Amino acid sequence: MNAIPRWVVLSGLTTSFYLSLISPASAAIIQSRDPAVSANDWDPVLNGDSGAGCADLAVIFARGTFDDGNIGPWVGSLFHDALVSHSSGIKIAMQGVSASDYPADLAGYVKEGGSNSCAKSLGSAVQKYNSHCPNSKVAIWGWSQGALCAHKSLSELGNAADSVIALGVFGDPVGIWQDTVNYPAIPSNTKLLSYCEQTTPDPLCTSVTEDFPSNPIEFINRLVAIWKQVDSTHMNDSQKAALTSLITELPKQAKSQISQLGKDIVSGHLRRWMLTPEHFWYGNDGTVKTAVGDLISVYQSKK
Question: Across-strand partners of 195?
């Protein structure tokens, strides 16, 4: 792959434009945040503020491997912006899983099938939010490794499980992990909203269209070469910075897990490592807007 597909529509909207689209009801609950990588709307509740307000729809997001902040620049931030700009009349609060609890590194993905500490942190946050805001509807979301974390969190919710109306996942790799990891069943009251790019296939959630080397070092070098060829012209500034970081972190972290990569090649699990550019486009190709529409429809049906 030499460039981002032409169908990719990348967001060039500024934060000020998005803020102009937020309804007064939604704006009242949005707290200050770094819009590039973080969302902290649940903080007053999580920090124990007895006067903290409650959202109609409270969303928690688990970012993907290599993402900065607590929601990341590739998918989470653009999902947040689409959510607050398309939810007129609904008080929205979005939170990222604590970065101190969840480093979003490659080890958590390849060794655990999604960080266990992420799942525990996410579940704990939902329980605490629900105890303060029992009438709020909750939606759990994740992208990439965050999608696996979101699945795992379903066993960490306690009595708050009844408040969770949706499990939303972008580029969900659960299908290539289910033979070795036992993920919790999705409760009947929780709607699964899953988005996988199939036009230019995301190998973590659909069929693979390109052959990759079976030698671990050659495989890593091939991934890095693909990323170095990506056209960054239409990326926003945060994504350009993330791309530079990814090209450094991907081989470094992959080589530190070279033994696991070798085992996965032998056992037929090479697809788990195919972090190709197609896996990163959900925030830029219109998918987040589709997902927001679907989530709002689920919320309206649960009112």
Answer: 170
pLDDT in tens, 137-189: 999 999 999 999 999 999 999 999 999 999 999 999 999 999 999 999 999 99
Half-sphere exposure of residue 165: CA atoms within 13 angstroms, side-chain side: 19
What is the maximum alpha-carbon separation in the chain? 57
CB 158 within 8 A of CB 177: no
d(CA 223, CA 275): 7
d(CA 177, CA 175): 6
Query: Cα dihedral sign for 96, 97, 98, 99?
Result: negative
Q: What single-letter amino acid sits at 118?
A: C
- DSSP class of 280: G
Which spans in the chain are helix H?
Answer: 15-21, 24-27, 43-46, 77-85, 106-112, 116-132, 145-153, 216-228, 237-256, 258-266, 287-302
Residue-wise pLDDT tens digits, 107-125: 999 999 999 999 999 999 9
**CB-neighbour burial class of residue 282 (10 A; exposed 0-12, middle 13-18, buried 19+):** buried
Task: Round to whole Å and give the CA distance between 8 and 247.
Answer: 21
The Cα–Cα gap between 213 and 218 comes to 6
Q: Which CATH number fits domain 15-206+280-302: 3.30.565.10, 3.40.50.1820, 3.90.1210.10, 3.40.50.300?
A: 3.40.50.1820
Counting every residue, how long is the chain? 303
77: three-class secondary structure by DSSP = helix
Dihedral of the CA atoms 114, 117, 121, 127 (nearest 10)?
80
Rounded to the nearest angstrom, the gap between the alpha carbon of residue 269 and the centroid of all alpha carbons in its chain is 22
DSSP annotation of 74 reads I
